[in-house]
Design goal:
The chain is of the alpha/beta class and 364 residues long. Helices cover 44% and strands 12% of the residues. The chain is built from 15 helices and 9 strands. The N and C termini lie far apart (51 Å). It binds iron/sulfur cluster (SF4).
Length: 364
């Protein structure tokens, strides 16, 4: 029996794949389309024929960041001509625009600004939630939560409680990159390490806050380091069950401190999506984030184990500053058409993966 046949048997028997299985699936000798068929089967077992999207807008309140990760094209130092920090009026206008466009979610992440206190970040959540209570606020990566804990000298638990009381609805999955410390030393040496990231998500889950998880692939990491990352997430999910979706993010070297690296190929992106679906048997959703993967690869990924295209995504800056060539936003009709073309049923979801019913589909 070949190694791939043995893996197929495990998948049919709903057994877990091992680290060695995962590393093998990254080898070019494993046919990508065969891998995609396996992952698509697992995806359909979990989600049927549905593939989802949401109506969301992004808010990146500042690009000034103390961490200045080499992988990041978005951040800059204070005083840099590119630097900005949004005013309260600009932030509230973004909320108004999101609500007027029919969005159900505002996705809020940005930099750790050296002169903004926790009150600025907390007040933003409170003001937006008070003014737009129907908008779900998915805000602050674990890196930012760690920064807030340092700013306030409070434990993460207290920081999360204050944010939840102010209106935080859930947390995105950014800042995970690759957990391996040797990789982090090269691509993000100063920000929260793997244990800190995992502990913050564990604490969030213990407080009933749902979160996502991500992995930035295609830079200096090895296949084994990707698999180690997935297994660490799988272990935490076994413990808490608090993750909603896993999001593989493609590295974009343009404008980063790692410009000599090449972008990961579409084939590596599809392989990573498929392997993520197969390894993360305890995650319900794998998101093909079209901003990061590109629209074409994200659509194709719906046949390679993904079941979620993310959203309309107005005003995204972080990936576009890194050279993402995807459009600034997609309309609802465009998202639905992309999904329908794959033969899947387009389903609008909210931030907690409930179905959204709309009388008239006129937003976008
Ligand atoms: Fe700051 Fe995040 Fe960019 Fe790192 S990746 S510099 S933490 S904004």
């Amino acid at each position: 029996m070949s190694a791939l046949d043995a893996i197929c048997d495990k998948i049919d028997a709903r057994q877990r794949l091992s680290a060695a299985d995962g590393a093998y699936l990254f080898s070019p000798e494993v046919d990508l389309h065969e891998l995609g068929r396996l992952a698509d089967g697992v995806c359909r077992r979990k989600n049927g024929n549905a593939a989802c999207y949401n109506l969301n807008a992004h808010l990146n309140p500042t690009n000034v960041c103390i961490y200045r990760c080499p992988l990041c094209a978005y951040s800059c130092d204070e005083g840099d001509p590119r630097s900005y920090a949004m005013t309260d009026e600009e932030i509230m206008r973004r909320g108004q625009e999101a609500e007027a466009a029919g969005c159900t979610e505002l996705h809020i992440v940005g930099g750790a600004h050296p002169r903004k206190g926790f009150d600025w970040y907390l007040g933003m959540i409170r003001s937006l939630h008070t003014a737009f209570p129907r908008l779900h606020l998915k805000a602050w990566s674990a890196v930012e939560i760690d920064h807030f804990a340092h700013l306030t000298h409070q434990p993460v638990r207290e920081v999360l409680e204050m944010l939840m009381e102010a209106g935080l609805g859930s947390m995105p999955g950014g800042g995970a990159e690759i957990f391996d410390p040797q990789v982090r030393a090269q691509v993000c040496p100063r920000k929260a390490d793997a244990q800190t990231w995992l502990n913050i998500h564990r604490t969030a889950h213990q407080h009933g806050l749902r979160t996502n998880a991500s992995m930035l692939f295609g830079h200096v990491e090895s296949a084994e380091q990707r698999i180690d990352h997935l297994l660490q997430l799988r272990r935490l999910q076994d413990e808490t069950g608090g993750f909603q979706a896993f999001i593989p993010l493609a590295f974009h070297p343009e404008h980063t401190a790692l410009p000599h690296l090449r972008r990961p190929s579409p084939l590596l992106a599809l392989r990573t999506v498929a392997i993520s679906r197969l390894m993360l048997d305890n995650f319900d959703h794998i998101k093909a984030y079209w901003i990061s993967l590109g629209v074409g690869v994200a659509q194709t990924a719906l046949a390679y184990g993904a079941d979620d295209l993310d959203g309309t995504v107005r005003y995204e800056r972080i990936h576009h500053d890194a050279g993402a060539t995807s459009p600034e936003a997609l309309s609802v009709d465009q998202l639905r058409a992309l999904i329908a073309e794959t033969g899947r049923e387009p389903v609008e979801r909210d931030s907690l993966y409930g179905r959204v019913g709309r009388g008239m589909r006129d937003q976008g």
